[in-house]
């Protein structure tokens, strides 16, 4: 049974950290079920992953939509494939001060970052419990530890993901199932573009952003080791460590300065 080919299901697998994770699974000869919204992108990436000699199934779904999450679960069931590893990678942010941002956009972010993750975890963890085997990787963030002005809802959703992951892990402590939280910092992906965050100070210095491939490798290794959580990148570990020593109000103010529009910084300095 050790040589049996396993299958990993990865959401948000066509770009960024999810794409890099999918490459790592393919290199280790995991068959893949990759999920994203764009059918063309899915097929393009699937052909790339197949070069590693693995089977790749593409499923186009909009995980902002609860009904499509349910349909995803049903379609995977219909495949008759055992999902050995679930990677809840899909997530998005929304930039701006809460008083100005669109509530519908924020509720959509909650649907994607929290609701879809909980639904997929519920569905597949039940199957893992039945066979007493499986792994789950949830994309949290250093944002889970840091109150985030200019991204208040996003940071709040990631705090939920980390807390949820640690709680479910404790519940499953006596099983052979492990759940790992990956906590990246600011990473060079399309996240900031989708969040309409390109004006933020934190994005201006591209050299300071972590590489998605490096973050994925840290998360992949932690998942395979069965670790509870891992912070990707030394500077992010330092940031979280320092924040643990400060009042939340100070941490929030520091984040407010880091994430505010760069033009505000320039105006203040003039």
UniProtKB/TrEMBL annotation:
The keyword rRNA-binding does not apply. Pfam families: adh_short (PF00106). Transmembrane segments: none annotated. It comes from the Bacteria. Keywords: Oxidoreductase. GO terms for cellular component: membrane. One of its GO terms (molecular function) is oxidoreductase activity. Belongs to the short-chain dehydrogenases/reductases (SDR) family. This is SDR family oxidoreductase. It comes from Mucilaginibacter myungsuensis.
